[in-house]
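For anyone still unconvinced, we reproduce a single protein record, the chain in one-letter code, the fold tokenised, and leave readers to judge:
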Amino acid sequence: QAGTLGARPAGAPGLSTERASALLAGSTRLISGYVERRPGGVRIAAVVEDLTNGKTLRSVAAEAGSAFGALQSLSQSFSGSAKPYLTSDENVLRLYATALDEDTGHIDRREEELRQAVQSAPGFGPAWATLVQTRLFKGERVGLEELIADARAHQLDPVVSANLEVAAAELKNDRAGIIAAQRKLAAVSPGDTVLLRSLAEREMASG
């Protein structure tokens, strides 16, 4: 992989794991690919696969002076109406991507990378949401309400804001609040079948 993205740990989930997760989530398309370092830049190639029959639907590639530039060009190859990502800070993206690749044996390092990301870009919602989930995974609830409040004080994207609302309700074990927050999240993530299933189960259980 390109040095700007950092090395992928050997123990990180591979495509086979991600394929299974995509199928369980109800996805019908899977995008996979690779990053290649080129003299003076980065090349990213991607393949779109139809999960229903295993056929390749499309292959695209983009090259630029940086990983971020290549990703932006690649997104335009997929759709001319593709919107810019939530941050254009390459260092923040590197920290976030590296944190996502950390295995559970380096959970403290993941938390530190995410903290650096939100300090550098307080409006980058995905890093906030992952930081909250990391603290929950570690079982560290002390100060978590304050962390969620700090995150929600910023102008974040609707999906992350709804996710944080769910986390805040779960932290208080507020069943009605969880359902209300999940409904908001479902409204902005209508294609999330796992979420819809969870919401339906909670609503049935609550009567």
About this structure: The chain has nine helices and three strands. The longest strand covers residues 29-38. Residues 176 and 206 are 8 Å apart (CA to CA). The chain has a mean pLDDT of 86.
